Amino acid sequence: MNMETKEEIKDIERLYAETVHRVERGGIIKGKVVAVKSDGIVVDVGYKSEGIIPTSEFTEDEIANLKEGSDIEVCVEKINDREGVVTISRERASRMRAWESLIAAYSTNSIVEGKAVGKIKGGLMVEITGIKAFLPASQIDIKLVKDLDSFIGQTMPLRILRFNTAKGYPNVLSGQNSGTSLVVSRRSIIEEQRGRKKEEAVKKLKVGSAVNGIVKNITDYGVFVDLGGIDGLLHISDISWRRVNHPSEFFSLGDENEFVVLKYDEVAEKVTLGYKQRKADPWLSVDEKYKPGMVVKGRVVNIADYGIFVEIEEGLEGLVHVSELEWSAKAKHPSKYAGLGDEIEAMVIHANRDERRLSLSLRQLKPKPWELIGDRYKIGQKIVGRVKTLADFGAFIRLPEGVDGLIHISDLSWTRHIKHPAELLKKGQKVEAVILNLEPDKERMALGIKQLTPDPWQSEIPAKFKLGDELRGKVLKNTDFGIFVELDGGVEGLVYSSEMDSSKEVKEGGEILVRIINMNIEDRKIGLSMKNLKTAPQEE
Description:
By secondary structure, this protein is mainly β. The chain has helices at about 5-20, 60-65, 90-110, 185-205, 285-290, 370-375, 460-465; strands at about 30-35, 40-45, 50-55, 70-80, 85-90, 110-120, 125-130, 130-135, 155-165, 180-185, 210-220, 220-225, 230-235, 255-265, 270-275, 295-305, 305-315, 315-320, 345-350, 355-360, 380-390, 395-400, 405-410, 430-440, 445-450, 470-480, 480-485, 490-495, 510-520, 525-530. The protein folds into six domains: about 25-110, CATH 2.40.50.140; about 110-190, CATH 2.40.50.140; about 205-280, CATH 2.40.50.140; about 280-365, CATH 2.40.50.140; about 370-450, CATH 2.40.50.140; about 460-530, CATH 2.40.50.140. About 15% of the residues lie in helices and about 40% in strands. A five-stranded antiparallel sheet has the order 3-2-1-4-5. It has a five-stranded antiparallel sheet with strand order 8-7-6-9-10. The protein has a five-stranded mixed barrel with strand order 11-12-13-15-14. The N and C termini lie far apart (about 190 Å). The relative contact order is 0.04.
């Protein structure tokens, strides 16, 4: 071997040594695919011999896309200088790169993405670029999470809270994360986002301004609304101008709506919201919009003993008082005229903005009873009604139309002397009468019962009773001025006190012998005497 040859050999050995020195165990280097075989991928990493990566480290798609000459990153696992063999792994390289990215994310407090792959004690196991990490249950959300299973399979943004290694670096070559504690949080990101949203939301919180929010909780007294980082309370009294029994009538969890800021306390961070304030208070224009005599339509929203509440428009309710249900003084219970939810018509009687009152009527939409009376009845016509009230001067008779006619005490009987209507009638009794006078415009009607039969004083009584006749009669009443006696046919006569016979016993209900001493046809009176009788009294 000559000198030139020796020098060449030394140069080759030096270059070879430098090449081998660059390939170190545990390092990540770039290689080129030499061949794709069924048992592995042959990669040139610049060593004495090529390395082989098992096909198990690749997916079918990845293998299909590999070509001769493709660049690939691998991790040197073993170097056997004696035999000139190098063992490489693409999977180890990927894991090392993953750890490097996690270390960088931890140091810069950056966000990483992880997938929940399982549930373990106290939280979830998540996988971040192939690395397992622990997500405590308390770090999943800002609120308590009860159903951990619902998160499994989800990919979520995370922040690394703790990154501890026993040896200062993950033992990636062993394939284990032994000595490494990787704890992550989803909650910190939500809190950060909520903080940013809160800042934006607070800028919009001006009294009177409109804000969008999502219903997060419903209670008996109101609704809590998420305004984006800060909550607002919508009290039940500010939900609607109409009556509200419970907030759930208007809202459901998760509903997104527009609200009005009524009050904002920056120190306490309390926001009071309004919902009904999006529209003007309907009572402000009630007296201008609803005039007396106007017919309106509405929905029955409440029925009480004293009347029916009708909603004319949202938040505007009118009352049909029980006295305005029917022309009849004896109206039925309000529930007999309408049911909850019914659409009805009513007439406006009175509107008062300051008192927030709207008085309505149902009866005003019906013909007035006296108008019907004027159309249906005439003087001399017979009617049938029931005794409503008895007074000293007569009886009031209720007609089917709901109006009352008066039978004066003098029109009860042609022949009897009646001091009180109760002697002939009783309350609720059905009676027949004749219309004597009718004045619908003055709401007056005069009735008579005695007029149902001809006046016996015209011919019957004068023909039947003569002066000097001696008759037996039944004692009806003994008074200071005389005795009333019922004669044949129900005709009454009066025994003057001066014509009474003190020697004879007189008992109410008993019979006495009398003589006609006066016949006043015009005044319809018969005068009697117990004295100077020609007929001898019969013995009992």
